[in-house]
Amino acid sequence: MSGWTNPLGWADAGADDETVLTQTRYDESEGPTKADNGEADPSVVHREADVANGAKVSGWTNPLGWADGGDDDDSVLLELVKQHKNSMHKRV
């Protein structure tokens, strides 16, 4: 046995809770609550520059900007509904 216990289950009388709470105050917010304005993005995540409006040298385009005539939309939606109904029957 390791003797390990879950620290979330530990308790005490709470005599020094005020000192612990004062130690967790910060002059400035830090960690996940600090705003990320993207100022370090160029050094963190490489983004391929546009060579034209939305066009990249690699040929990549944003799939959310793709469109078609909509000729097959009904069959796609019916297939999605069919797949959903089949998955519901398998769960039961």
Please describe the topology of this protein:
Elements: H1 17-23, H2 41-44, E1 50-52, E2 55-56, H3 73-91
Antiparallel strand pairs: 1-2
Features:
92 residues; mainly alpha; two-stranded antiparallel sheet; 3 helices; 33% helix
Number of helices: 3
State the shape: flat
Distance between the termini: 41 Å
Low-confidence stretches: none
Rg on CA atoms, Å: 27 Å
Compressed to H and E, one letter per element, the order equals HHEEH
Largest sheet: 2 strands, antiparallel
- Number of extended strands: 2
Helix content: 25-40%
Q: Supply the helix-strand structural class.
A: mainly alpha
- Beta-sheet strand percentage? 5-15%
Task: Summarize model confidence as the mean pLDDT.
Answer: 75
Oligomer kind: single chain
Strand order of the largest sheet: 1-2
